[in-house]
UniProtKB/TrEMBL annotation:
It comes from the Eukaryota. Substrate binds at D20, D96. Pfam families: Put_Phosphatase. InterPro entries: HAD-like_sf, HAD_hydro_PyrdxlP_Pase-like, HAD_sf, Pase_PHOSPHO-typ. Keywords: Hydrolase, Magnesium, Metal-binding. This is Inorganic pyrophosphatase 1. It comes from Capsicum annuum (Capsicum pepper).
Amino acid sequence: MAGIVVVFDFDKTIIDLDSDNWVVVDELGATDLFNQLLPTMPWNSLMDRMMKELHEQGKTVKDIEGVLKHVPVIPGVVSVVKAAHALGCDLRIVSDANVFFIDTILNHLGIHDCFTEINTNPSYVDEEGKLRILPYHDFHTCSHGCNNHVCPPNMCKGLVIERMQEASLAKEGKKRMIYLGDGPGDFCPSLKLKEHDYVMPRKDFPAWKLINENRHLIKAEIHGWANGEEQQHILLQIIKAITIHEERQFLSVDSKFQTIPINAAHHEALPKALPVRY
Ligand SMILES: [Mg+2]
Ligand SMILES: [Zn+2]
């Protein structure tokens, strides 16, 4: 069952709000400077600047960790992540938050080890004890090259998905992808998904609206979810449907081997991972 890759956005898809807003505005109260600087710089640069501000106000990395540990999560998300992992799916994250926030929250929820990849903005604690947040893509050097106006300069999630598609095709043959997200940045990766993939946008959120306005551009099957219960139910249903479909394909190929002589061309067309039984 390693044939299914489930890619989660993080903010408003695993947790129930935006982690940057939660730390800076809701909990640690740097609202005034945040509002003042917001129109003047890209979000990713603003977050690094806000971490400097929090440090100057005497807020420590421990304070930030404490705040992250009581962030509200999507109800049921911990059990659905564990269930999908137990079913053999390859789970990954693609997020415009940062490594420190995501690692802290996933470790606290006890699901960090369920994920094989976390693709997000790098972060580290510097020698002064200040959290630094860097861009995933260093846009000061050059653009990431995606022209989609909803992709921020520091990260095009569509390019991350394309990299995953190329890597899996090269190594393990065709995989099916299920992508879950809510924000405008989740629209570009939705465009990259193929016919056999699935996109699960959060209903009435920006990704869902963009997908609905551009349905002709989406090749993947679209399944919206409005709450944790629907997210859990739909994701597990899709995994089940793919698994049943693949088992049937396996059985039909298996029986063909017993009745039809194997010719080279037929043999070549089989997926590489398929065990051949006689
Ligand atoms: Mg999000
Ligand atoms: Zn893009």
